[in-house]
Amino acid sequence: MTMKSHVSAKKLSRIQCNIDRHWVGNGFPVRSLFTYPKLGAITSPFLLFDYAGPLDFPPTNERLGVGEHPHRGFETVTIVYSGEVEHRDSSGGGGKIGPGDVQWMTAASGIVHEEFHGRDFAQQGGLLEMVQLWVNLPAKDKMSPPRYQTILNSQIPSAKLPDDQGSVRIIAGEFDGLAGPAQTFTPMHIWDLRLTIEEPITFTVPEGYSTLLAVLKGSIQLDHSTSISAAEMAIFDLAGDHIFIDRAQNATALLLCGKPIDEPIVGSGPFVMNTQEEIHQAIADYQSGRMGHLSS
Predict the structure, then answer these.
(1) Alpha carbon distance 60, 271 (integer Å)
(2) Per-residue confidence (pLDDT) for residue 21, from 0 to 100
(3) Residues 83, 184, 220, 156, CA torsion sign
(4) Which residues, including other chains, have CB under 8 Å from residue 295's CB and lie 6 or more apart?
(5) Whole-angstrom Cα distance, residue 88 to residue 272?
């Protein structure tokens, strides 16, 4: 993707924010910037965006996080900005990710997993800040075998923006000739932005793709008057082939851009499928152990 003048900018549709935190387990204080029951048709293929932290945790020997739980029908993408997260699942996947790393877990046909603070991080204490994104799968792939991608910071290419305006880490998709390492089922771009200079900048994005801009730190101004601050998200119309940022003030942001999946979204808790019957089947499969178990 390049930064240049185009025919039409995507128009800002709405700003999403959530000042209320809720706890996921005992380790992740989360603000949900959007969820699929309300906005899934608009944000597709993205189902949910949880921003955890930033919050300082004191040193502890307690296991902080979320114990064994299932998923089916989608993917979870965890991006760590500060702290550490340990994961293991019933397919044998797992590991520890730290600042700059990404965990891309494809639940697909079904998986049981757990997520906790890294043991070293918990014992030392410190700042936890991370994002978890849920990405939908098309119907034809919802029952694919599960898989797990550990994407380390060192594997993620970074592009410098013109005139020292900042940088872009390419987690998925492409930017300025660089390809992100994440393997995806449908076309999408996930760019981790650092915008440091208060000058206008244009990002080229595909026509007809859902486009979301989440600000984690600092602020970004759009439409000459709309300011987006930390824990806020801009959602753009599908039409248009670029977004225009008036200025940014020391901003850390995630730009999500994906080809919509034009299929029904039916979900219940950790399962996201296409029909209610498939949800009933998912619950039955989990309860009967067909999604596997974690070894003790």
Answers:
(1) 32
(2) 92
(3) positive
(4) none
(5) 21
pLDDT tens string 212-224 = 999 999 999 998 8
pLDDT per residue as tens digits for the range 91-109: 888 889 999 999 999 999 9
CA distance readout (Å), 270 to 51, 74, 76, 107, 213: 18, 9, 11, 10, 25
Find how far residue 244's CA is from the centre of its chain: 22
The per-residue pLDDT for range 132-150, each reduced to its tens digit, is 999 999 999 999 999 999 9
Distance (Å, whole) CA 75 – CA 48: 11
DSSP conformational letter for 154: G
What share of the chain has pLDDT > 70, as a percent? Answer: 97
277 vs 142: CA distance, rounded Å: 14
Judged by DSSP in three states, 138 sits in: coil
Look at the chain and count its residues.
Answer: 296
Q: What pTM value is reported for the model?
A: 0.95
Closest CA to 169 of 205, 195, 132, 134: 195
- The tokens for 42 are 């608009």
CA distance 73 to 278: 10
CB of 44 closer than 8 Å to CB of 238: no
C-beta of residue 100 within 8 angstroms of C-beta of residue 80:
yes
Is the pLDDT at 252 greater than 60? The verdict is yes
Beta carbons of 185 and 138 less than 8 angstroms apart: yes
